[in-house]
Write a structure and sequence with these properties.
The chain is an all-alpha fold. It has three helices and two strands; from the N terminus they run H-H-E-E-H. The longest helix is centred in the middle third of the chain and has 46 residues.
């Protein structure tokens, strides 16, 4: 029973941590956890402070173990963001302000519609939007040349419908 309670307490604290500790920064893997001078509780201290200290030590240990994995994940995500950033920049140029739109709706047929708010300023002219699109000579997919899979790519199994 006690391990389940401790696990539940650790999980709930880890989920609530980002909400309550906005300025908290994950310790580096090489940093040592702060230690109290004598490690003992003083008689006048809050009875929950010992639990809080133990929970902090446990969470620091968990984050210290996870840090190399999180750094690797962050590096991979940075590469993905760099890969998608040109398309995101182009999309942000076409959409003037997200505040001018309602949240997306899914229709019964599966289509997704993003409606413009009635009180939003008029959208840019179509000529202006056409100017923001990439030129046909820049190799954008679907413009002029047919797409082909890269050489030496593994064939993907096809399913008959």
């Amino acid at each position: 029973m006690a391990p389940k309670l401790m696990t539940a307490l650790i999980l709930s604290a880890s989920l609530a941590g980002p909400l309550t500790a906005q300025d908290w920064e994950m310790p580096r893997a090489e940093d040592q956890p702060p230690a109290s001078a004598d490690g003992a509780e003083r008689p006048g201290d809050d009875p929950l402070s010992g639990l809080e200290q133990e929970l902090n030590r446990t969470m620091d240990g968990i984050f210290r173990r996870l840090q190399p994995h999180l750094e690797g994940l962050g590096n991979e995500l940075a590469g993905t963001v760099n890969e998608f950033s040109p398309a995101l920049r182009e999309l942000s140029a076409l959409i003037d302000d997200f505040g001018n739109y309602h949240r997306p709706e899914r229709l019964e047929n599966g289509d997704i519609v993003i409606r413009r708010r009635a009180d939003a300023p008029p959208p840019p002219d179509m000529d202006e939007l056409q100017r923001l699109l990439p030129d046909e000579g820049d190799g954008a997919p679907g413009r002029g040349e047919e797409w082909a899979p890269p050489e030496n790519s593994t064939p993907v199994p096809q399913t008959e419908l």
